[in-house]
Amino acid sequence: MSNVLVVEDESAIAELISINLRHAGYDVTIATNADQAQLVVDRVLPDLVLLDWMLPGQSGLQLAKRWRADARTRELPVIMLTARNEEGDKINGLDAGADDYLTKPFSTKELMARMRALLRRKAPEALDSAVEVAGLRLDPATRRVTRRLGEEMREIKIGPTEFRLLHFLMTHPERVHSRAQLLDRVWGDHVFIEERTVDVHVKRLRESLLPVQCSALIETVRGAGYRLTQQIGSVAA
Length: 237
Ligand code: CA
Hints:
Elements: E1 3-7, H1 11-23, E2 27-31, H2 34-43, E3 48-52, H3 60-68, E4 78-82, H4 87-95, E5 100-103, H5 108-122, E6 131-133, E7 136-139, E8 144-149, E9 152-155, H6 160-171, H7 179-187, H8 196-209, E10 218-221, E11 225-228
Parallel strand pairs: 1-2, 1-3, 3-4, 4-5
Antiparallel strand pairs: 6-7, 7-8, 8-9, 10-11
Helix pairs in contact: 6-7, 6-8
């Protein structure tokens, strides 16, 4: 399930958006100003932020700029919501680091379509689409991980945390992820969980992948973190 942070000071609009999002299966948190939004993000990184431009105090525009300047929030998917519809405002919003821009009033259908497009681009692990890497297939909808071995389709047994970890790695292959980044994106907590926890679950994940000969997919990058590599033959098991 995807976590969406709605930053909007007009409670009627915030409520309407969150009812629609919850109905569509999203988990929603509402913040009514920039400080509150920052507190939410400091605790757990959302999968996507709907950010109103006009907020009391610090504006949505300033908040987007602040997030883009911080390594931890640089990649955070942000859709800016605004009552303005001047071309110059749109350009300012995108320059500040918003990934997309919606002018109020907008239809729920359009909002959902933009959100899905942005998630596909920046956080595919937040979507329910099945993903396949090197013959290994993970389906979030059925929570199954399978691999064809000869004529046989084999399913592996995997714990919930290992499933999320594998899902994240499979949707971001070939990139090195530090332990802190994995805690943020997979556990949703980079503050209270020790980085050693990541190592424990990577070990379990490799063990789960052993019966389908895929444990070598998960590569340790010394001093940097972990990566899922599709060049399965090139890595020692
Ligand atoms: Ca507003």
